Amino acid sequence: MSDRFDPAPAATQPAASIVVPVILSGGSGSRLWPVSRASFPKQLWPLVSDRTMLQETALRGVGAGFAPPMVVCNHEHRFLIAEQLRAAGIEEARIVLEPVGRNSAPAIAAAALLVAETNPGAVLWVMAADAAIARTDALAQSLSLAVSAAGDGKLVLFGMKPTRPETGYGYIEVGAPLPGQDGVHAVAAFAEKPNDARARELLQTGRHLWNSGMFVATAATLIEELRLHAPEVLAATERAVGHRGTDLDFIRLDPASFAAAPDISIDYAVAERTAHAAVVPADLGWSDVGSWDALWDISAKDADGNVAIGDVFLEHTSDCYVRSDGIVTAVTGLQDAIVVVTDDAVLVTHRHQAQDVKKVVERLRAAGRHEAVAHNRSYRPWGFTEGLIEGERFQVKRIVVKPGERLSLQRHFHRAEHWVVVAGVALVTREGEQILVRENESVYLPLGCVHRLENPGRIPLTLIEVQSGSYLGEDDIVRLDEPASN
């Protein structure tokens, strides 16, 4: 499935409208654990197609009348996001780095302020990086209606036609049609995420839509509404933008200023307070992919209602979602189950209790388990490391370094390392000596020696690292310098 679409014909869009896609990529997607974790959240995974959810979202904004996208994200994900955008052919994207998480209102305020520096009349199309949309033709028409109303000073939400009594979404009550804006309505009221009984009532009224969190408004409208309804958010974000720095392709918001912004969503800060809220009712095949049950719901299924991904074998099983990112996984005699297998964790739950996965992650965090937030594979700007085996006083890792990249010059006080090259060529600096290590060759780095690893070749360098010593924590690294790309 592809989320890319051709925009509505230019004649249906206001001539002066420049649409800037603003993609929010700050969540961790804990309900999709163990695949989605804080170190590598769901928007960076290919969950609904062969492209990642971030790539699918960005590709929706490619077409006539659209500016390059702006992505607001956690600074720890910056290199992953930049690489995924490049891989999708997205050029000239502006990547704004949040030094700390402060919910959606400060993130959107930063985007509006940055766009307004050159074009306050530009329309911001704000969307999460991790939602799926099946009907891209309908999206084009809905977006055209919303952009027109945004030009009249409206903050236009996309309300999704509900298909079930959903308790995981907020709701929008549709009001009267807006004069002169065909297909756009006033917002009569907002409803918080309801319990099951209330969700059934809202579904039966026929007037309530799911709040998708996607909306459009001009940069000038957003800034003025923030000034009226959330002045503390705007003031802190103005300082963060005003004292920003630049680093390669990234815009770094000032940490102290941004940290002072209230932690509040754009819904609470502006949408539920403004007198200019409007809604476009839409049937887009939309899902926030907020749980494994939601992912099962939108995925292609076999004759027994199963979704099977990876090395999976099913027997007498129906209406299940089974995924293995590693070892062979066999399931027999289950119905309405979720089974997810990664290299370091296994999740088994009933589909109708998939929302409770977040509670499991909270318990893992409380227990100090690294599996709650990080995978065995840890990505760096130069490549990645992957834990293979860990025991008393030793551990084994796979290290992959991109062509032309290098690691910092460093030493360790508590461990020695032995590197075996299995693919490519390594240039190793050891106590000032440079050593070229080829495939099937190795080099020993004694405890305390100053060393560096780099890849001078044209193919990825892969090596196996064996660490041994009294302490093997990642904080036993003294970096003597850093490559520019770090």
TrEMBL record:
Protein name: mannose-1-phosphate guanylyltransferase
Gene Ontology molecular function, alphabetical: mannose-1-phosphate guanylyltransferase (GTP) activity; mannose-6-phosphate isomerase activity
Catalytic reactions on record: alpha-D-mannose 1-phosphate + GTP + H(+) = GDP-alpha-D-mannose + diphosphate
EC number(s) given by UniProt: 2.7.7.13
Family membership noted in the UniProt record: Belongs to the mannose-6-phosphate isomerase type 2 family.
NCBIfam families referenced in this protein's UniProt entry, alphabetically: GMP_PMI
CDD domains per the UniProt record, alphabetical: cupin_PMI_typeII_C, GDP-M1P_Guanylyltransferase
Uppermost EC category: transferase
Residue ranges of domain Nucleotidyl transferase in the record: 21-304
Keyword set, alphabetical order: GTP-binding, Isomerase, Nucleotide-binding, Nucleotidyltransferase, Transferase
Domain of life: Bacteria
Xref: Pfam families: ManC_GMP_beta-helix, MannoseP_isomer, NTP_transferase
Classification via InterPro entries: GMPP_N (IPR049577), Man1P_GuaTrfase/Man6P_Isoase (IPR006375), Man6P_isomerase-2_C (IPR001538), ManC/GMP-like_b-helix (IPR054566), Mannose-6P_isomerase_type2 (IPR051161), NTP_transferase_dom (IPR005835), Nucleotide-diphossugar_trans (IPR029044), RmlC-like_jellyroll (IPR014710)
Keyword Metal-binding: no
Residues covered by the MannoseP isomerase/GMP-like beta-helix domain: 317-364
Ranges of residues in domain Mannose-6-phosphate isomerase type II C-terminal: 368-482
